[in-house]
Write a structure and sequence with these properties.
By secondary structure, this protein is α/β, with parallel strands linked by helices. It has 6 helices and 15 strands. The chain is globular and about 75 Å long.
Length: 389
């Protein structure tokens, strides 16, 4: 019994500090502060349990069959209590999520095709991928072409079948060769979408801004390729990055909105780069809806944490990335690390929080080129109206 209680406390202890790491990476903190706290959190996750184990061995509490709780300081007992509550709540949430999980009713179809991008050689085989890319079971080059048919309740019937390619988190670092991203673009263009939405974290190092014309600049869509930036993009000259993207043919939605027309129907497209780049688009200036719900409102956001903002601004469809789907998913458990105020709740997939439907993509790559049980994806969204059901 003592061993079970201490194991539960250890589990709750890990959950607490992982939750803090997730929320730290969701905040608009200086990079040095984010990584300092992250290192501190992982140190706190490891060293206190080791110190506790050493204390147990050095005292009369060494035998778990006769563990003496009264020997523990009150502050340690209090923290153990917090850890037990953490373990209970987290395990309960996990069981509820996995046992009762059902795809949202707005998801009509979900299918995927995996493409082995490792079979695609790098341009002239130089520069080659980083050695981490070739680790066993690493799925960083196992690209999913995912198609999701989604019902957007206020989509008007003339827009039924509207096609959007959602891409995010390219993370140009040089660790994954440029040829990979060129192939991602080629596969995206094969769907001939109405729109392409790119939701941030494009470039990590300034040297790779020059990749944009030959990669993102080749994206094609019937009614435009739109983008917002993410937190990693603030590591480079943001003005130069935006200028390069715009010069390459993409349309900047950072902190603004625009109105376009597809099939004779108006659509508002807007951008939200909070909390890293302010302000978000001023939706109060958008044309008001008519009695049929027009115009449709689609917002590009880097973080799924802007869902509450989207609900408050009457957004129909929110497209987000940032979380990489967790990037590493453990068998049965799923994602652990997800940089969001909600932890892994919105790691990836489709979510319905009326009036907003949110799609969170797993993204195309990652700063650290390692993915386990969480392949990158090109997300092809096909929107349907309620009337077409």
């Amino acid at each position: 019994m003592h061993l079970l209680l201490l194991s539960a406390a250890l589990l709750g202890h890990a959950f607490l500090w992982i939750a803090m790491v997730n929320r730290t990476h969701a905040a608009a903190m200086p990079r040095w502060a984010t990584w300092t706290f992250t290192a501190l959190a992982f140190a706190m996750m490891v060293f206190p349990p080791l110190a506790f184990a050493w204390w147990v061995v050095q005292t009369d509490a060494a035998s778990f069959s006769r563990f003496h709780w009264e020997l523990l300081p009150k502050t340690v007992l209090l923290y153990l209590g917090i850890c037990w509550v953490s373990a209970l709540l987290t395990v309960g949430w996990w069981l509820r999520r996995h046992a009762l999980h059902r795809p949202p009713a707005v998801v009509r179809r979900h299918r995927r095709r995996s493409i082995d991008m490792a079979a695609t050689p790098s341009e002239c085989d130089r520069p080659a991928h980083h050695f981490l890319v070739h680790l066993p079971r690493n799925e960083i080059l196992q690209l999913d072409r995912t198609e999701r048919a989604i019902e957007v309740p206020r989509l008007c019937p003339p827009l039924d079948g509207l096609s959007i390619i959602h891409l995010s988190d390219f993370h140009f670092t040089g660790r994954v060769a440029k040829r990979y991203f060129q192939e991602v673009v080629r596969h995206a263009n094969e769907t001939e979408p109405d729109l392409v939405a790119v939701t941030g974290d494009l470039v990590d190092f300034a040297a790779y801004i020059d990749w944009i014309p030959d990669t993102l600049g080749r994206l094609r869509a019937g009614h435009g390729v739109y983008f917002v930036l993410g937190n990693h993009d603030t590591r480079v000259d943001v003005r130069r990055l935006r200028r390069t993207l715009v010069d390459s043919g993409l349309i900047d939605l950072g902190g603004r909105w625009t109105q376009i027309e597809i099939r004779g129907e108006p659509i508002i497209l807007a951008g939200n780069e909070l909390p890293w780049l302010a302000p978000a688009a001023d939706m109060s200036e958008c044309p008001p809806r008519d009695t049929s719900g027009r115009p449709l409102r689609i917002v590009l956001s880097h973080s799924p944490d802007q869902l509450s903002w989207a609900q408050a601004h009457d957004v129909d469809l929110l497209l987000a990335g940032h979380t990489h789907g967790g990037q590493i998913r453990l068998p049965l458990i799923g994602p652990i690390l997800s940089p969001s105020r909600e932890g892994v709740k919105y790691a990836s997939g489709v979510f319905h929080a009326p009036p907003t439907v949110m799609h969170v993509t797993r993204g195309v790559s990652g700063e650290l080129p390692i993915r386990l049980n969480c392949p990158p994806e090109i997300a092809h969204l096909v929107l349907h109206s309620a009337a077409s059901a």
